[in-house]
Structure formats: structure tokens, C-alpha cells
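Thought: the user wants the 3D structure for the chain below. I'll pass the sequence to the structure tool as-is, report back what it returns, then summarize two notable features.
Action: structure_tool
Action Input:
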Amino acid sequence: MSMLTPPGLGGKYRIKGDRYPRMRRPRRWGRIVAASLASVLAAAVLGWGALQVIGIFSGSGPAKAADRPAERAKCASAAPAAEARTSGRKAAEGESAGKKAAGGDALPEPGDITVNVLNATSRSGLAKDTAGELKKRGFKIGRIGNAPAEFDEKIKKAAFLVGAPGASTSDRMHVLGTQLAHTETRYDERDGKDVDLILGNGFAHLAKKKAATAALAELAGPAAGPGEPGKPGASPSAC
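Observation:
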């Protein structure tokens, strides 16, 4: 036995020459795994906390009751926008509607308008039947017959409204225009206040009497104020 070997030790602990036995504690893997899991959990908690702080300062957190008045204010602002669109559409209906809204001369009644009903299609009896219906609705009927050659079979829309230039003729055309859709207005050099209704290939029939009466009332009357449901200018009670 070497003199470097402590008394009582031998075997694998025997020291030979310059080689010494390595004596260390065995690794405990359970503690290592536990420490790793604790580190991962701590990192996850810190990350979640950082996301919450970022959400608070960026304003992307959950909606609160204090946010709801702003939504109601935004919803309420839609009513004036709709009213403005309605006013713009009425303004585009012509000079006569503007005068009525401003308290100027009233639009003429159907009984004050003389209509010449002319047929520019190949359908026989169309002018006569249309004139009869307009007479029932209160219009005065002038001439009934075929349209001039310049319009014969050349009108693709429902009708042309032709009359002398001037604001009064424009008023009569607007009133007559409530009785049918898809019309075009033209002016020519003529005397008198008659309005020619020249029926084209796109004409099928006059508007329903109820719809025409409503259109005439809307044209002649002022817009309803806010809060009156079912009329122009009314705002919805809820969004």
C-alpha cells in the first residue's frame, strides 16, 4: 500500500503513483427539473403581466360603461346626415320646390295644368288611355294623338315632357312628373302654358295613384321635422 493511502482505505480508493480518486456527489435530476419548470413559469407570468400593462396604456382593453355614451353620440349623428341627404335630393328636384320651401309661390294644382298626350310608339290607343287616367287624377287634357315625326319610335325612356322655357313651365312639369317615372324634360320655343307628354317605348303605365299622390304631397309640402316617424326628415328612435 502506498504511503499516500489513508489508513483503512484500499481497493478502488487506493492511491497509486500520481493518480487520485475523484470523489463527488451524484447529480440529483429532480431538483434540476423542478428549477427549470419554475424558471419557465416565472417567465410566463412576467410576459402576461407585460401584455396587460401594454394593453392598458394603448387603450385596447375591454369596453367599459364610460365608452357607451360616445357610441350613442355617434349613432345620433347619423340622423342629421340622413336629413341632409334628403334635403339635397329635394333641392335637386328643381327651382319650383325651392320656392315652395322658401314660402314663395305655391306649385300649381293638377287642374291648372293642361296636358297634351302624344303617342311616339307603335301601340295604338296608348295616348287615349293615358289621357283618360290623367283626367281622373284632375289634370286638364288638351290634344290627344300621335307625336311629331322627330319623336316617332325614337324615345327609349317612358316619356318626354316638353314645354315653353320658364319657371312656370318647370313647376307644371314637376307636378306632372309625379305621375310617372323615367321622364326627360325638354323646352322648345312655343306660346302658351300647355305641357306635352310624349309617351316613349319605355312607358308601361302611370304610377299607382296612391304613390303619385304621395309624391305630389312630398313635392308641394315642407319636410316633416325630426321626431315625426314615417315622414321625410324624421329620425329613428333608436340605432
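Final Answer: Structure generated. The two ends are 102 Å apart (CA to CA). The first helix runs from residue 29 to 58.
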